[in-house]
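Exercise 7. Given the encoded structure of a 289-residue chain, write a plausible sequence.
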């Protein structure tokens, strides 16, 4: 892989953000955007446990999906408070994915400010929380709704690998899915990386970005950007989503959500092995094998 650092600024005007990052579709880390939010100081494990500890949540392990696994299917369920206790005790390869905490505790929306000065189209009903124990992994994928994302890290550190959507075939995207067939775990750690360049040689030419997010950092991920995330420490993050301006971008997200995903789920139920092998063949063909 050919990786470079993500641009980092302490703060940025809406005009500069639009010109240099939003319009060209380039990622950016903003260091200070969230540091004036009450959430920056208030949000921690004990606070969340106190207000929403009795809510049941889906949790996800580090195992990549197989021929039978629908997109975004939880591996287990537990009370949010019990999960937070596990995370606090030490490394745990479990994470919470796309949890709308704010439907259970709407007062939390008073703890941050929507950055409308940067872009329009925020889906304000759905700010999402992502929580992970040290060692948990979010495998390489792009967001199915094709939204722009502002992803703010709270507590701990997270390492993020990013690629433009156009690199999809070098990343071995599985047809009818938003996932890569390759495993990028420990990509940054010599001797422990699980990347198999012999099986996936096109990865060598994939051009992307590498960044470590710390408490208060906000990452702008343009629509369709591929991302793989690893929790270096236990922590959590919030994603604010904004729809694309163009009708074409919006329609692509709708198709992914209600067309592509439903067809893939149906095929996984009716002909899982045939469907998996078909997609595997198409994946390697697209990568130039």
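Solution.
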């Amino acid at each position: 892989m050919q990786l470079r650092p993500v641009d980092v600024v302490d703060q940025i005007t809406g005009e500069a953000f639009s010109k240099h990052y939003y319009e060209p579709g380039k990622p950016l880390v903003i260091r200070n955007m969230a540091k004036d939010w009450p959430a920056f100081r208030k949000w921690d494990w004990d606070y969340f446990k106190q207000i929403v500890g009795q809510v049941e949540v889906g949790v996800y392990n580090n195992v990549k999906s197989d021929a039978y696994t629908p997109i975004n299917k939880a591996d287990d369920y537990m009370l949010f408070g019990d999960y937070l206790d596990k995370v606090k005790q030490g490394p745990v390869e479990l994470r919470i994915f796309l949890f709308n905490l704010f439907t259970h505790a709407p007062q939390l929306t008073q703890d941050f400010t929507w950055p409308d000065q940067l872009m329009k189209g925020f889906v304000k009903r759905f700010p999402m929380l992502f929580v992970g124990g040290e060692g948990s992994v979010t495998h390489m994928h792009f967001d199915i709704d094709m939204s722009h994302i502002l992803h703010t890290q709270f507590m701990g550190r997270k390492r993020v690998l990013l690629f433009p959507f156009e690199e999809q075939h070098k990343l071995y995207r599985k047809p009818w899915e938003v996932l890569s067939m390759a495993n990028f775990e420990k990509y940054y750690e010599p001797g422990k990386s699980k990347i198999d360049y012999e099986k996936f040689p096109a990865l060598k030419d994939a051009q992307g970005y590498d960044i470590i997010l710390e408490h208060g950092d906000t990452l702008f991920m343009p629509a369709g950007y591929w991302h793989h995330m690893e929790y270096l420490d236990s922590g959590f993050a919030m994603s604010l989503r904004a729809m694309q301006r163009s009708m074409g971008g919006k329609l692509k997200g709708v198709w992914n959500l209600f067309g592509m995903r439903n067809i893939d789920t149906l095929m996984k139920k009716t002909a899982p092995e045939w469907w998996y092998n078909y997609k595997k063949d198409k994946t390697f063909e697209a990568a130039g094998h």
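Remark. The chain has one domain: 2-286. Students should compare their own answers with the one above.
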